[in-house]
Amino acid sequence: MTRLELRLSPFLGVPTNSWGGVGEARLEHYFRAPFMVGLELAPLAVVASGDGPGALAQARVHGAYVNDYFAIGLGLGGQLQRFGRSGLSVAPTLRLGALDGLHLSLEYAYTRAPNRYTGQPSTGFSDVLATLAVPLTRRLSLELDGGLALQAWAYTTIGLRHRLVGDGGPGTWFISGAFGGAWLTDRGGCNYTADLASPCSGSAVSFGPTISVGLERRF
After folding, report:
1. 2-178: which CATH topology?
2. Is the distance from CB of 210 to CB of 147 less than 8 angstroms?
3. Is 173 helix (H, G, I), strand (E, B) or coil?
4. Distance from C-alpha of 119 to C-alpha of 59, rounded to nearest angstrom
């Protein structure tokens, strides 16, 4: 089975003339053996204010051992940041519970990138993404979704996920909707050590309420 999942949470910022959005995209292939390989863009965050638009993204190749009630894997790729410094991204993943039932999914990301102040390579924790799904009926689930990063972005939503057609295998469609809030910053802090006339320039910050939409297709 191949699984394609897209999710987007746009918002208009509370600060005047600002906006942003957080999204995820995953393409995963599940083999008959208990393994999965895929590509993921998680998260993709875009924000605009101040000196123009900023962007943060982590793109990885992902592999995992999976069964009906458990999955553990690892993603490897890159981190991209417009106002910051790009680098390597490594992300362990874990799912406890059934994919279409009660489950908790976690993804921790670690990055290796030049320090924004010194330029020296450094390795450390980057962000965490989490999803808790609670079935309400055979076709409908309650979902709590959120993320937090040291690059100063965070979001959380609560909503519903509905199986439109199919039995969970190829040919199945899911749709989801949620509401919550998001706060995005692409290098919002001031760099007073830099040789700049305006040490706080080159940043984009926005926050506000968001409505999230998602779509999943299985082949």
Report:
1. Porin (2.40.160)
2. no
3. strand
4. 22
Residue 124 C-beta-side C-alpha neighbours within 13 Å: 9
Cα dihedral 75/217/143/95 (nearest 10):
-30
**Angle 97-57-87 (CA atoms, 0-180°, nearest 5)?**
105
Helix, strand, coil content of the chain in percent (nearest 5): 0, 70, 30
Q: Judge whether 176 and 143 are in contact, CB under 8 Å.
A: yes
Task: Give residue-wise pLDDT tens across range 94-141.
Answer: 999 999 999 999 999 998 877 666 667 778 888 899 999 999 999 999
Q: Are the beta carbons of 61 and 75 closer than 8 angstroms?
A: yes
Tokens 């999204």 sit at which residue?
A: 23
Q: In which element (H, E) is residue 171 found?
A: none
**Sequence spans of domains, the chain:** 2-178
Q: Which of 212, 156, 211, 158 is nearest to 183 (CA)?
A: 156
